[in-house]
Structures are given as C-alpha cells and as structure tokens.
Amino acid sequence: MNSFDPNSVNVRCAHFIGGEYRDSSGRIDVSRPSDGQAYAELPLADADTVDEVVSNAHQAFVSSDWASRPPRERARVMRRWADLIEADAQILAPLEAVGSTRPVKDVVGWDIPYVAEGIRFFAELADKHGGQVAATQTDRLGMQIAEPYGVIGAIAPWNFPLSMGHWKVAPALAAGNAVVLKPSEMTPFSSLRFAELAVQAGLPAGMFNVVQGDGRTTGDAICRHPRIGKVTFTGSTATGASIMSTCALTGPKPVTLELGGKSPQIVFADVPDIERTAHTVALAITGNAGQVCVSGSRLIIQRSILEPFVAYLKRYFEALRPGPTWTAESTLPPIISRLQAQRIDGIVQRSVQAGAEVITGGQLFEGLGGAYYQPTLLAGVNSQNPAVLEEVFGPVLTIQCFDDEAEALALAAHDTYGLAAGVHTADLNRALRMVRGLEVGTVWVNRYGRSNDNIIPTGGYKRSGIGKDLGREAFEANLRFKSVLIDIAH
C-alpha cells in the first residue's frame, strides 16, 4: 500500500476495556497532522474510568490462566497475534498513518513487520527465562522465583504509535502480566486495533486494555493507581521526570523510562565513501521529519572533509518533498502539530540570533495545510547554542568541527542527554576507542538507527532514561523476583 484516501479510514473513538469497545464522557479533538483537519473526537478517561480499566485488568490477571498458563502456550497466542498483525496491514496501516507522522509506505514496509517480529521475539522469551537456584549450605535450598507484577501501566508516544506500543505491551504480556496502555491523544487509533487483534489471537479479554486520554488526567491516574505494579513510558525528559516523581510518591513503584536525546553523529575523514556516509547522516535526522528520540541531531565532523560532506547534505535536504502521510510521492512527513512546528522554528531562530548560520532550510513550508518544517543545516554553532543544547525534535542538524579524537569526544559530550551516538570511521581501533569514550546508552558504528535485531536493548544514560526496552532486559523488567530459602530435613 503506497497511498489511500484519508476520508475513507474508519476510526473507533473509544476505549478498549475487557475485550470490548467502550465510550466515556469528556472529549478531545484529534487532528490530522498532514493537513491540519480535525477528524475525530476522543473520549477522555478520568480517574474513575482509569480505576475501572485497571480493576478490570487486575481481575483478568487473577481470574484468567494467562500468567499460570504454560509459557509455550502463551508464546503460541502471541505468535498468532503477530500473524494477524501482518495479515491486517490493509486496515492497520491507514489507521497508523492517517493521524500520525508515519508515511503509509513506511508503516507497511517497516513498522508492521517490525512490530510482528518484536512480538515473536518476546514470545520466544516466555519459556526461556525462569528463576535461579542459589549457592547455599548443603542442608538448605535457596531459590529465586520470577513472577509477573500483575498490571503494567504503559504510556506510549505519538511519533511511532505501534512500534513504541509493542515495546511496552509485548514483553509485559510474554511475562504473564496484564497491560493498560495509554496511547498519545494525538495518535490514538491504531492501538485499539492492535489490542483487538490480540484478543482475536486468543489473549484472554481484559489482559490488554487501551484507555484514551491526555497525560495530565489519564496518564497521571495510571501512575497513581495502587494496582499498577510498574509503569513504562517513552517521551520527553520533563514528562518522564514527572512520571517518576508520581510513581515514587504514590507507590513507590518501578519505572522504565526512555526519554529525550541530543545524539551526536561523529564522522572521521577516513570514511571510505563520503557521499554514502552523508546519506546515512541525513537519514538519521530527516527520517520521520526528525521526530525520533534517537535522531542524530548533532553532526561532529573532522574538519578536512567538511566542505564536500556539507555539500552532499545540502543536496539531500533540498531534494526532500513534503506531503501527506497517505501519498506515495511524499518524502518528508509533517510535524505532529503546528504548535510543535512553531517550537522547532523558535529554537532555530534563537540559534541564529546566537550566531548560527543557516546553510539551508530554517523555516516552515507554507501553503500545505499541515505543519511541515524545512530540513535545516546550522553551522557556526558552539556548545551553548540553543540548537545544540535543546532537543529540537525536528529535521534540524547542527554542524561542529574537530581535528582529533579528544576534541570529537569533548564535542559529543552533553550535560543533559546520553541516549545514542553514531561513529563513522574505517579504523576499527578508533571506533572501539570512541565507543568506550561516549557516555550514551547505544552506539552505532558505520550506520545510524536500530535494526530488527530485537536482542539488542535500548535505553539512555543521564536524563535520557532509566532501564531498557527491547532485549532480554525488557522482558526481565516485567518480572519481580521472590527469594525462597528451605531447610532440608535430615
């Protein structure tokens, strides 16, 4: 599927509770970022509705056999779910694309296969992880028993609704938990179909619930609920800090937080193909219009190749064509909202006032209905420039030059963020030295961005988060461990 009619997409403006679609009072207008048109009204779950959803999830956890079911049976259900997701692309992809920043061709080509494979990955962990027998005196038996928390509260962002949603839901379900998912109020609808397909696959009703609403009311109620055993969130650092505080004050309860980033892309002069590397760097900041937590927003480049490298970047940036997520011709998706686009532009303008030079871009595209921001290159910046310090979350790339490895590492360091970094070099020893020196949670060498190797966890250092998504670490984070010590009678 490369295109579709946005007016033909049938959205369900509801919650998904106990395997059924449910309405509630309160309304939030939902607009399409591609053209700015309001196309739905979303129910707003208040604290009473959240209490109902969580209670339903807890009852399903207690009364169903999901947590006690043999792990291989849980895995079979999850594999059926993954198969249904792939088969449902003609319905699921337009639901994902119409109200988000994800082009439909990317949803079909990447997001849906990625989600299905992620579910299969976590399904396979279900029977490959247990407790441990501890070394104790010979007349005693010590054990650690792994058990699910019960109900996991998951709060997903708007930039990759399905992909980020499955990061939260799949490991929690594989570990035997029930889940209450709150998608972003800006991109709420694909999550409903996502949950419906899980029930069709054989997941007991009530084990996966979707509650609609905003962060201030609905998200806060999820974090505060006493029967939520753990909260997992992807989003901004400020919101993550608020969630962590709320969970501490009303729990305490554990959290997994994947938060903001200001990731450097370090390019050495020995790269074998400057044009190819420039293309990789460009994709890392223009993909999803820069609305990616790990987007490579800071180019740190060896001075001797600056001029040809920037020429390639400029050519690539200026070739991108903005357009709706439902057309195949679009190569640059919209910014999620006009308010966010104005925020991006505000950072760019403050950066220029602080001395940045605009090589290309630097303003909104006009006359397109939705909010589209020109891919922007900013040179002449120092480490205190707003575009270097602040997470822009848009297609804005700053450029800083270095002469040696020590200077590259100094420029790459950031006081606030430590989510990811890229290193481009033909020298393996240099690459490993940089990997050791970078204070970030993920380093990509001679590439930029995640693959479908779900075994590799992701998460940040500093204020970029706590805990890990993906990998065995994400599965284990949905389990708590009970210690047992038994005296053996002689």
Give structural notes.
By secondary structure, the protein is of the alpha/beta class. It is globular. The model has no long low-confidence stretch (mean pLDDT 96). The chain is built from 15 helices and 24 strands. The protein folds into 2 domains: 273 residues, Aldehyde Dehydrogenase, Chain A, domain 1, CATH 3.40.605.10; 190 residues, Aldehyde Dehydrogenase, Chain A, domain 2, CATH 3.40.309.10.
Task: Describe the SSE topology.
Blueprint: E1 15-17, E2 20-22, E3 27-31, E4 38-43, H1 47-63, H2 71-87, H3 89-98, H4 104-125, E5 132-134, E6 140-148, E7 151-155, H5 161-174, E8 178-182, H6 189-200, E9 208-210, H7 215-224, E10 230-234, H8 237-250, E11 255-258, E12 264-267, H9 274-286, E13 298-302, H10 306-319, H11 338-353, E14 357-360, E15 364-365, E16 372-373, E17 376-379, H12 386-389, E18 396-402, H13 405-412, E19 417-418, E20 420-424, H14 428-437, E21 442-445, E22 461-462, E23 465-466, H15 471-476, E24 479-487
